[in-house]
Every structure is written in C-alpha cells, then in structure tokens.
Specification:
Elements (H helix, E strand, L loop, with lengths): L1 H13 L15 E2 L12 H14 L14 H14 L3 E5 L2 H12 L10 E5 L4 H10 L2 E5 L4 H11 L6 E6 L11 H10 L2 E6 L25 E6 L9 E5 L1 H10 L1 H4 L6 H13 L4 H20 L11 E7 L1 H13 L2 E2 L1 E3 L9 E6 L6 H14 L8
Parallel strand pairs: 1-10, 3-4, 3-5, 5-6, 6-7
Antiparallel strand pairs: 2-8, 7-8, 9-12, 11-12
Helix pairs in contact: 2-10, 3-10, 4-5, 11-13
This protein binds pyridoxal-5'-phosphate.
Amino acid sequence: MYHFYDQYCVEQAAKSRLRVLPPADLPAALDFSSNDYLGLAAHPDVVNAAIDAARQYGAGSTGSRLLSGNYSLIESLERQIAIGKQTEAALIFSSGYQANMTVLASLLSKRVLPAPPIVFFDRLNHSSLYNAMFLSGVEYVLFDRNDMIDLRRQLQQHCVASRPAFIVTETVHGMEADRLPLAEVVDIAASYNCFLYLDEAHATGLYGPQGYGLSTTVDLSPVPHMVMGTFSKAIGGAGAYIACNAVMQQFMLNRTAGFIYSTAPSPMSVAAAAQAWRMIPALAAQREQVFAMADLLRQLLRARGITVMGDGTNIVPVCLGDEAGTLALKKALLDEGMMVSAIRPPTVPTGTSRLRVALNAGHDSDSVSRLAQAIARHVSGPAARG
Ligand SMILES: Cc1ncc(COP(=O)(O)O)c(C=O)c1O
C-alpha cells in the first residue's frame, strides 16, 4: 500500500508543492521566517524559568489535568491569562492546533446544542479551525476574510432563529497580514445572536495596550465569546490558551476531548509561557521596533514597485502567485543568507503563493534594507508590477 502515499508525494512534487524539512539548525545570517516576534524564545529569564520548573516539577506533567497532571504553576498561568485578557477564566492546552480543533468541535457538539448549529466561517481560517469543522461535521458557511458586507449577507441568508449560530475568525491573519475590524464583528454577531470564537495566534503579545491581544481593545461582552491564543509565536514557547468565562471553562473540563484525554503540558513550557506573559506589558519598545521594521520593509518594497500585502502587522507577504517562482525566490534569498518562508497551497489559495516575511524585534533597518534589495533584484512578474 505504500505506493498510494508515495504517489501523493510525487503528485505534490509535480505541482511544486512537495514539503521538505529545511536543514536542521540552518545557520541563516538573517532569519525572517521565525514566529518568535519579540525574541522571547531564547530570553534568559524565560529559559531559566523553564529550567527551574523542570527541577521543581520534573520534565513532564505525568497525566491529564483531571488525573495526576494538575499543578499550581498551570493554574497560576491560567489566572495570569484571565487577568491579561480581562476574562473570568482561562484554560491551557498543549498547542494551538489542538485547542482550536478540540474546543470548537466540543462547542458545536450536537449532543450539547438544542438544534444543529450553523457556523459562519472566515474563508481563510487556519487549518486547525477547518479541521474542527470537519471533525464536528457541522454545516459551515464561508464568508470572505474581513468583508463585513459579505458576512452580513451570509448571515441574512442563512441565519435562522431555531439554529445556534457561530462566527469563527482570526483577529490578526498570519498569512494575509491584516487585522479584523473587531468592533464591527461584535456588532454584527450581537445583531444576529451569534457566538463569537476568535483566534489570536498572531495577535497575542503584539496588540492591545498591554500587548495581550486585539480582543482586549474591544468590549466583547455583548456576545457570548471565547478567545484562543498560542504561546508558540510572540510568547516564544509552546502551548495555547482559551480565555473565557467560568461557564465555558467548566464546560471544556467536561466535554472537550482534547483537554480531558490529553496529558497536561509540561511544567517547562508552562513556566516559560508564564514568565513571557509577565514580561509582555513591558515590551512596548520591542513592539514598536517590530512594527517600524515592517513599515520600513513595506515602504522599501513598494518604492521598488513590488506589491506587498496587508498593513499594520509585522508580517509582510510578497505575493508571487506561482509555487515554483516562490520556491525559487526563497532559495535565492537563502543563498544570500536570508531565511524567508515560501507559503504555497493548500496553506493559501491556489494562485496566491507568497513569500511570508516575518519581522521581529531583533531586526534593524540595515537587515531590512538588505532584504528589500535582494527581493527587488530577484522579483519580476506580478509582484513587481506594483
Ligand atoms: C491562526 C493560527 N491558529 C492556530 C495555530 C496553531 O498554533 P500552534 O502552533 O500553537 O499549534 C497557528 C499556528 O500556525 C495559527 O497561525
């Protein structure tokens, strides 16, 4: 049977979509591919917190939270998160992928709701959110990313009072590099009586007065809601949180399979996330630097006639369209010591393959200018037509 799986990879390669692991520990002089936006992954205080936790609690949590795996460090991180996100409660998961899939699937469970739910689902949502739709088998209606007219249109057409309705979207999009008009989404959700599920994977650490995400900038109380975020990007670690009220926390303890039947995250990753979370409000200068560098790169590329996507985010996507051209540009930049991610379908829609430049607090104007010059030298075609 191996040949079926081999054939799949052969077909992917023919479309320039085959994924291969990059060489381990690639010593690129300049890394524009990392999600460690604030440089916390290797920060000594974060690393030491992980080491101390391993000494005190051990390397693993020894069981699921409901059995042997509950410990004070994890409960204290949940309290810190609830305070930062201004919610009653929070619950921690081992990864953002796991949290999205399993939490959403449990929310949408036909055993829990009085009628089959309907989900209004951002077309460009992350794979983990899509997989929650597949897992729960619910009906979902796509709306165009950040298109509030389309969202209203779909709600008008498909929302019926007898069916519980949900809106699922990301506050900051990691591939489109745009921000959700959150206040408007809350208004819309309120007028159609929808439950709002927000993914703040790319917002956590970078937005809001204290850096705790876009959800802290808007009053979400008019609608039932849950906010998910990861520790794997600006927090520099691993794991995820759901910020919610006490009812929803209790519900997850009782129904969310990926929480109930999964070993609790390791004390090392929880301690690292807790230390990073404490540091986030004081990192305003790093946030300014990240956004200033992203603005500079956008300016430099646009000045050279290169189209870049998004605005007001630290991600700068350069859309080339085709897979082969995007891979070739990634390779050319790597040959010059610059690591940038090539993003291809199915991660993004066909015809929108792109270079995804992720700026972080360690970048300066020299490194950004070097990258802009290199991209401009290699790019021709749609992205260069301005
Ligand atoms: C929008 C979004 N949600 C969820 C995830 C998954 O998070 P994690 O890496 O913690 O599993 C990611 C990570 O790529 C993401 O970009």
